[in-house]
Amino acid sequence: MTDEFRKPGARKVGQVKEVTSLANPIIKDIKALSNKKDREAAGIFMAEGLKLVIDALELGWEIRTLIYAKAAKAKPLVEQVATRTVANGGLVLEVSEKVLSSVTRRDNPQMVVGIFAQRWKRLEDLVPAKDDTIVALDRVRDPGNLGTIIRTADAAGASAVILVGDCTDAFSLETVRATMGSVFAIPVVKCSAEEFLVWQKRSGVNVVATHLAGAVDYRTADYKSKPVVILMGNEQSGLPDNLAKAANRTVRIPQQGRADSLNLAVATAVMLFEARRHLLTLEDRT
Ligand code: SAM
After folding, report:
1. Which residues form the signal peptide (predicted)?
2. What CATH class does 3-117 carry?
3. Ligand 1, from 219, 261, 271: best to mutate by most atoms within 8 Å of Cβ?
4. pTM
């Protein structure tokens, strides 16, 4: 990657560039962000849409590069975001729609794209309070599922999402798209299954694991007396024995009909809103 793109300190403050060629090295670097390795190496990711970029800035995320279509140049909000990016030492690129399409891999791209520094919460810094609900996902593979779960966790008032084991990347374009901006609102942690088990013991949480073979109806679990971790299994193979056995409760969402199981994101939503229902008082529910 070009230094100019990677290190904000390496370039002059206040730089705005016009780019129309797909062969431009900065555009090549941005396109490389579709690879997890390149995203990790540079510690950055891409988010599409003016609203998302504004929300992210308001939540204190560090913008490295702002890209906008020429046609959006005159919009006051775009100007404001560009000014803020430059003031933060970021790079602003005014590009053709062809370049935007290529960078976002979409025929009808958003007019504004932001490139932000990734932010991971460390497991040791995750200290749950009594009424906290946390989602832990074992080896989630599908970016659409992960994005939907981050969005749902945000909507249900959860305090974090933990990615356990080899999971799809929280900062891929597909995941970020599916979060609809909630990736900026919910802390995301990644760890191995072993690290999760150590943390689980140390932090005194109540782990409610979901399993198709769970003996207990999910509505009867305790979501109230301690911070709760809702543990969800992998899309194909479900929860492995070591995680299921270490949980405080293994629950099942009763089903009817012919489907073997619920989709992972749907099952997580059912669990999160059940936990929320237990936490809300009657007055809160109005
Ligand atoms: N073939 C997998 C299995 O045997 O577990 C199905 C996995 S399911 C698609 C993905 C995850 O969603 C499960 O590991 C579990 O966490 C959750 N899940 C789906 N349906 C569920 C249900 N009815 N009760 C409890 N958890 C469920």
Report:
1. none
2. alpha beta
3. 261
4. 0.94
